[in-house]
Task: inverse folding
């Protein structure tokens, strides 16, 4: 069975400092990996994805993520944090393809990011 | 540019009542999903539909039923609501890779 671990429930970072939100995964075969962000009382917004190719993936709002196959990790990063980045971040992995364009997306439990002014 | 639309946004039910959560997408996606979000649990898959006319159980299907009415619509039904079903419910759709989510339905069962 596939799984995602986000080892930190909360990450605090000062505005202007670099941030990292950690994610490790377990899945059969090659992984498709995703990061989503959730602002209070809102749905999930897609940030970025890794399918294949370059291990460093760039996404929305200046975020990027680094895929590391040997460590089965997909950490989310940003060079300079903004107060507006404060939100709940979810890592997700794509499961086994089950035909007709379907797949099961498994999420981590989420990491609350707080950027301190 | 609606994307994925869920109704209602909020609902309070008494134990034992039934209700249907509605979801519609206008992106011509084949696959649709229902998740529930609980504090500290992340998102857990309830049911999904690979295409019109097919549905499959996810991680936590007990107490729920679904209907893929057509390509656009995927509804979630609680036949006899229980307090353990108090949660925020999200519908999502996808074509091939990433999923797109609705704004959620906050359901409270008292």
Result:
């Amino acid at each position: 069975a596939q799984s995602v671990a986000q080892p930190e429930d909360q990450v605090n970072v000062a505005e202007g400092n670099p941030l990292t939100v950690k994610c490790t995964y377990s899945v059969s075969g090659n992984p498709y990996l995703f990061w989503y962000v959730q602002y209070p009382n809102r749905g999930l917004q897609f940030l970025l994805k890794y399918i294949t190719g370059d291990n460093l993936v760039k996404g929305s709002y200046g975020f990027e993520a680094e895929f590391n196959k040997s460590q089965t990790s997909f950490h989310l990063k940003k060079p300079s944090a903004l107060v507006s980045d404060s939100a709940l971040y979810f890592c997700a992995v794509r499961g086994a393809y089950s035909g007709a364009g379907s797949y099961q997306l498994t999420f981590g439990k989420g990491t609350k990011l707080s950027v301190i002014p | 540019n609606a994307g994925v639309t869920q109704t209602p946004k909020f609902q309070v039910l008494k134990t034992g009542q039934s209700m249907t959560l509605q979801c519609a997408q206008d992106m011509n996606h084949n696959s649709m999903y229902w998740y529930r979000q609980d504090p500290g649990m992340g998102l857990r898959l309830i049911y999904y539909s690979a295409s019109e006319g097919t549905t499959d159980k996810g991680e936590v299907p007990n107490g729920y039923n679904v209907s893929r009415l057509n390509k656009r619509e995927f509804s979630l039904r609680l036949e006899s609501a229980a307090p353990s079903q108090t949660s925020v419910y999200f519908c999502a759709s996808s074509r091939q890779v990433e999923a797109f989510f609705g704004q959620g339905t906050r359901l409270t069962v008292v």
Notes: Chain B has a mean pLDDT of 93. The two ends of chain B are 35 Å apart (CA to CA).
